[in-house]
């Protein structure tokens, strides 16, 4: 290639920077001062004669600005960088300003080669962001070119949105509904993973025998596995397939792998160890207890790969406070109406007879399991709502279509229990059936079921105390200013509750229902449409308990139906109780029947114990045995005890029956909690020191102009461009009087909703309708580009006064002798090579530095970088006439040749600092033969020249 990466060329009437993607035939160019959206390619065999080397002209002394010019121009250039210098290559492309604690996994990852990391931070801390940071950094360092995210299908669109908005990564979805379309235009022998560099793949789609071998062959160099606990070794065909796929991916010793989960242990130590062996197969031999001095070496080795923190660990990390809402929990109860209670006793008697008849008669095991699951389906639906009960009583049991007891168990657990890693999460909220369809006495049983179904249908409305009281609860939450989500277990229940809320609540309150009958895209659309109403209520099933972050629009959760799995409760609450929730408090109401033993035993045995552990540790600890086994044990005791005389007599005897099993469960649960507590203490990553994070974060922010610079730049430049700006924590701007070209850019950035006014903040939380402006937000990108292009080409401002100029002069008491500040943009060619035989890979880095000298160019006394930076903050004490300003600026330009050697030497010194920072954080490269060198592109670009004259 005849043009070096980072060099300037002139083509098509403008100047460009050569990007690393260029080759001998195709130049990939970014306009000087332009945006990434303006990147273009020039095919040299056709246009090569029109492409010439270019140089950056010195400022025009006739275009003199005021004291703000240097500051605004400096920020505009830095905010426009996408290939920034500094310790982290990725910061210039991030759509947010990372919290300090989120850098810990990144620093850990860069000390590993290959990266093998298990991120197990608590729910709502931001594990997706932490994994994305590592991915973006490896991509921008040129160490990987492709990325795959493996996740449950219901999380795929969330990952796609997060990668796009926060990391500027455009990934395609590889799901059952998209794969055929993506593969349509492939050539023979091609894989879609060869064509699309960034993919988000449904784990359950790709783990199948037909797909997995192709994926193993063409899988990207970097893989993120979300909900990684579902890939731990466990019984069950689906879990085994997932585990085997991830293990096979890990066998490639060069592949980078990031595992993400909030529950790495899942209450089971063996499952946790199977995850660790994905990181390093040698972890299989770790001792069960890692405490004590004798195990320090094991802890140190594991700590290099494993980070696990609670909210308390990061709430006040470094100098940054991370706001999490306070969770205000409460319980609400109801009593069954006499009619509902009679039906409950009738159903309970029926299911007891059904189960005991088969068991006592020594019937075949298959019939026992079908009857068992039909019984649980009936009890669960009846506890939910009369409409769910009627649907279950009328429907055929899905277990009846099984062919073996094992298959009946698999179907029953999937449709009736609350498995958090279900093979078919989209169908979990369908009301199960109870009609077993057996030949003997089938007609009699069906008649009894239909009679009970008709009885259930008569209970809707006034005879349903659960429904009636829930309306008052929701009304109270709305009156207190909360925006509630009501979680139901079954689709009929959710629709039933939503219908009643629409009838009883004021018309101004919008009520929407979202269930598994809707595709994921439609669920998201309904939630967004609902949020446009000032007062709103969402009724949904557990199809929304994970996958869609709801903290922007909701701040209260009502458990209308108790989950039979405490982890599912935590997932529901975690939709609103997470980082980014703007309400200081979130409300959680657990709703149950005091005379409904179905609710009572689940609440007593599982949910309250889970809550006690969470309150004590600050984290959730899953049930340490299979939750379904616990639930089955509970209801076996409830259904198979000797016959009581009435429903009220069940509980005392049942409590005595369950006491030994409950004590055994709690003993195991407490032991798991102690293991989790020790793990959080050992692996909260105190090994990454706060001062290390602080040093690298400061250097990275300085390089890209992040943080407070974004806010100051936006407020100041918009005012100078004619915007009417008010700021009291938020920024509200009327852009009516700003240049039309700027408004056009904003319209492109914001979309059809732009009406010459914007409301924004520069940090969380946001109000409804506000923009979160970060350095890479399209609005900020448009603003900085407009400022820079106006300064580089004054004609581009169309007669509007430029807010920033490339030259200026002020008289100030801040200097004692004539001092000149140069804003210089340095461009570097970073070349990396792994091994002696591999070609060097080029990267581009840009850095803007203020350098200053006192006196004339011929007698220059160069100032330190800190002294140069302070000049930018000086304000004028007296006017400088335009003629005098031009005279002094012309002297600097005429004597510029005398300054060039120092500027070149500064470029070389900063290049050495860049190399040191690059290698410092990527310490693993020294162990694996990754060689890096940095070459400055000379001459550097002098963006601006500013004179500071002593006040006379």
From TrEMBL:
Identification of the protein by name: Superfamily II DNA/RNA helicase, SNF2 family
A molecular-function term among this protein's GO annotations: hydrolase activity
Domain of life of the source: Bacteria
Keyword Cytoplasm applies: no
Ranges annotated as spanning the membrane: none
Domain Helicase ATP-binding: from-to ranges: 108-282
Pfam family, one: SNF2-rel_dom
Compositional bias of kind Low complexity: 393-402
Stretches assigned to the Helicase C-terminal domain: 466-631
InterPro entries in alphabetical order: DEXDc_RapA, Helicase_ATP-bd, Helicase_C-like, P-loop_NTPase, SNF2-like_sf, SNF2/RAD54-like_C, SNF2_N
Region entry Disordered, spans: 393-443
Keywords assigned: ATP-binding, Helicase, Hydrolase, Nucleotide-binding
């Amino acid at each position: 290639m005849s043009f070096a990466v980072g060099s300037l060329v002139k083509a098509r009437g403008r100047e460009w920077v050569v990007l690393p993607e260029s080759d001998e035939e195709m130049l990939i160019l970014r306009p000087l001062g332009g945006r990434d959206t303006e990147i273009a390619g020039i095919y040299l065999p056709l246009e090569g004669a029109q492409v010439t080397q270019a140089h950056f002209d010195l400022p025009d002394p006739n275009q003199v600005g005021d004291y703000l010019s240097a500051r605004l121009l400096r920020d505009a250039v830095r905010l426009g960088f996408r290939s920034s210098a500094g310790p982290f290559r990725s910061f210039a492309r991030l759509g947010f300003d990372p919290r300090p604690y989120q850098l810990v996994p990144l620093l850990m990852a860069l000390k590993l080669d290959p990266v093998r990391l298990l991120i197990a931070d608590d729910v709502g801390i931001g594990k997706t962001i932490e994994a994305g940071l590592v991915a973006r950094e490896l991509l921008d360092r040129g160490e990987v070119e492709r990325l795959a995210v493996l996740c449950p299908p219901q999380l795929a669109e969330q990952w796609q949105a997060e990668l796009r908005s926060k990391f500027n990564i455009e990934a395609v979805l590889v799901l059952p509904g998209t794969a055929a379309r993506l593969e349509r235009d492939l050539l023979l022998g091609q894989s879609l993973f060869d064509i699309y560099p960034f993919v988000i793949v449904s784990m359950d789609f790709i783990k199948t025998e037909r797909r997995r071998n192709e994926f193993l062959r063409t899988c990207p160099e970097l893989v993120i596995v979300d909900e990684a606990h579902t890939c731990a070794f466990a019984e069950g065909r689906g879990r085994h397939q997932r585990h085997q796929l991830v293990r096979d991916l890990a066998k490639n010793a060069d592949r980078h792998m990031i595992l993400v989960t909030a529950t790495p242990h899942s209450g089971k130590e063996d499952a946790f160890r199977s995850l660790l062996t994905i990181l390093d197969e040698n972890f299989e031999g770790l001792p069960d207890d890692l405490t004590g001095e004798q195990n320090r070496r094991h802890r140190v080795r594991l700590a290099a790969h494993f980070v696990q923190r609670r909210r308390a660990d990061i709430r006040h990390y470094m100098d940054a406070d991370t706001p999490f809402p306070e969770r205000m929990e409460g319980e609400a109860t109801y009593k069954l109406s006499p009619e509902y209670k009679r039906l409950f006793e009738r159903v309970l008697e029926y299911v007891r007879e059904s189960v005991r008849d088969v068991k006592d008669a020594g019937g075949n095991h298959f019939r026992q399991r079908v009857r068992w699951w039909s019984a649980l389906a009936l009890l669960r639906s009846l506890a939910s709502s009369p409409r769910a009960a009627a649907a279950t009583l009328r429907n055929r049991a899905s277990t009846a279509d099984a062919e073996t007891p094992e298959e009946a168990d698999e179907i029953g657990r999937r449709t009736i229990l609350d498995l958090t890693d279900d093979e078919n999460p989209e169908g979990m909220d369908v009301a199960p059936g109870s009609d077993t369809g057996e030949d003997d006495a089938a007609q009699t049983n069906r008649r009894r079921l239909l009679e009970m179904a008709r009885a259930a249908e008569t209970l809707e409305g006034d005879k349903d105390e659960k429904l009636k009281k829930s309306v008052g609860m929701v009304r109270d939450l709305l009156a207190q200013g909360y925006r509630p989500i009501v979680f139901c277990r079954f689709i009929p229940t959710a629709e039933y509750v939503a219908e009643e809320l629409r009838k009883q609540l004021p018309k101004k309150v919008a009520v929407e229902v979202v269930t598994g009958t809707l595709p994921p895209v439609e669920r998201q659309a309904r939630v967004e449409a609902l949020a446009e109403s000032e007062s709103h209520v969402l009724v949904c099933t557990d199809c929304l308990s994970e996958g869609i972050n709801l903290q922007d629009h909701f701040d209260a959760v009502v458990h209308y139906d108790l989950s039979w799995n405490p982890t599912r409760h935590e997932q529901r609450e975690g939709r609103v109780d997470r980082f980014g929730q703007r309400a200081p408090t979130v409300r959680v109401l657990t709703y149950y029947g005091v005379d409904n033993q179905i609710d009572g035993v689940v609440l007593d045995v599982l949910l309250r114990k889970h809550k006690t552990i969470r309150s004590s540790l600050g984290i959730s600890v899953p049930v340490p045995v299979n939750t379904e086994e616990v639930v089955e044990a509970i209801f076996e005791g409830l259904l198979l005890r000797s016959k009581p005389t009435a429903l009220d007599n069940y509980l005392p005897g049942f409590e005595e029956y369950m006491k030994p099993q409950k004590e055994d469960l709690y003993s195991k649960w407490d032991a798991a909690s102690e293991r989790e507590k020790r793990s959080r203490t050992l692996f909260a990553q105190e090994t990454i020191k706060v001062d290390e994070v602080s040093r690298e974060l400061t250097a990275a922010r300085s390089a890209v102009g992040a943080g407070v610079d974004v806010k100051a730049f936006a407020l100041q430049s918009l005012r100078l461009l004619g915007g009417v700006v008010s700021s009291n924590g938020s920024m509200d701007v009327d852009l009516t009087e700003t240049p039309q070209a700027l408004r056009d850019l904003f319209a492109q950035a914001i979309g059809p909703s732009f009406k010459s006014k914007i409301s924004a903040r520069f940090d969380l939380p946001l109000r409804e309708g506000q923009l979160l402006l970060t350095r890479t937000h399209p609005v900020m990108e448009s603003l900085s580009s407009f400022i820079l292009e106006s300064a580089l080409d004054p004609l581009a401002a169309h007669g509007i006064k430029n807010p920033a100029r490339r030259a200026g002069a002020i008289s100030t008491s801040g200097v004692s002798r004539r001092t000149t500040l140069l804003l210089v943009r340095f461009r570097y060619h970073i070349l990396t090579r792994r091994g002696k035989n591999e070609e060097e890979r080029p990267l581009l880095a840009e850095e803007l530095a203020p350098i200053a000298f006192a006196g004339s160019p011929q007698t220059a006394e160069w100032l330190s970088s800190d002294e140069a930076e302070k000049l930018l903050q000086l304000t004028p004490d007296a006017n400088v006439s335009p003629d005098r300003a031009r005279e002094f600026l012309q002297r600097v330009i005429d004597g510029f040749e005398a300054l060039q050697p120092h500027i070149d030497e500064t470029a070389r010194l900063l290049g050495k600092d860049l190399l040191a920072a690059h290698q410092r954080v990527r310490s693993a490269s020294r162990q694996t033969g990754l060689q890096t060198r940095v070459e400055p592109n000379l001459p550097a670009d002098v963006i601006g020249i500013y004179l500071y004259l002593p006040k006379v």
